[in-house]
Amino acid sequence: MARSGQVRIIAGRWRGRRIPVPPVPGLRPSPDRVRETLFNWLQPHLPGARCLDLFAGTGVLGLEALSRGAGGLVALDRHPRVVAHLRGLADQLDAAGLVRVICADACRWLQAGGGGIRPGFDLVFLDPPFRRGLVDRCLRRLVADDWLARPAWIYVEAERAWQPAALPPGLRVVRSRAAGQLGYHLLQAGIP
């Protein structure tokens, strides 16, 4: 269980490591139980995976993936304070060579071509602020601008009421659960 102002990495090489939550309004770390379920779903797909965390916040989703064997992480956040925090965490974990942290608005960054970051991500974490339409906008950009490997996995964390109305072609929901006011979903991309 995480203490106030901290989240912990659940498994892998950094198992039990506590990650401080930067004091930025609106950060909403994914609960331990939700992350445990998510990474049970993803475990067969993690070794060597290239990961993209579009709304990194605390960084715990991407760092958990690296801890469990993912091969690299590009983490975005639009708050400079969060970006500085994430870069510091990568240094503390001796993972700076695996992590690239970028200060950017996720939807604009995707649409603008990612500033030289090559596409072909195996796993995308999509956990934006609630009730702003960002999930659907980012899903459209990920597909339209060809950011995904084939196959790829997209984790969506949103308000419980969010339902994928019309997913872009080639995406399908393979798992969905809810916890309190939170809904979380695993999508597969690159399917026929």
The residue fraction in helices comes out at 25-40%
- Output the structural class: alpha/beta
Query: What are the low-pLDDT stretches, counting only 5+ consecutive residues below 50?
Result: none
Rounded Rg: 15 Å
Tell me, briefly, the overall form: globular
CATH topology: Rossmann fold
Number of DSSP helical runs: 5
Q: How would you describe what is shown here?
A:
There is one protein chain. By secondary structure, this protein is of the alpha/beta class. The chain has one domain (6-189): Rossmann fold (3-Layer(aba) Sandwich). The chain is 26% helix and 29% strand. It has helices at 32-42, 60-67, 80-92, 106-111, 134-144, and strands spanning 6-8, 18-20, 50-53, 72-77, 99-103, 121-126, 148-159, 171-179, 182-189. The chain is globular. The N and C termini lie far apart (40 Å).
In short:
The protein is an alpha/beta fold and about 190 residues long.
List the helices and strands and how they pair.
Elements: E1 6-8, E2 18-20, H1 32-42, E3 50-53, H2 60-67, E4 72-77, H3 80-92, E5 99-103, H4 106-111, E6 121-126, H5 134-144, E7 148-159, E8 171-179, E9 182-189
Parallel strand pairs: 3-4, 3-6, 4-5, 6-7
Antiparallel strand pairs: 1-2, 7-9, 8-9
Structural features:
9 strands; two-stranded antiparallel ribbon; single chain; 26% helix; 192 residues; globular; 7-stranded mixed beta sheet
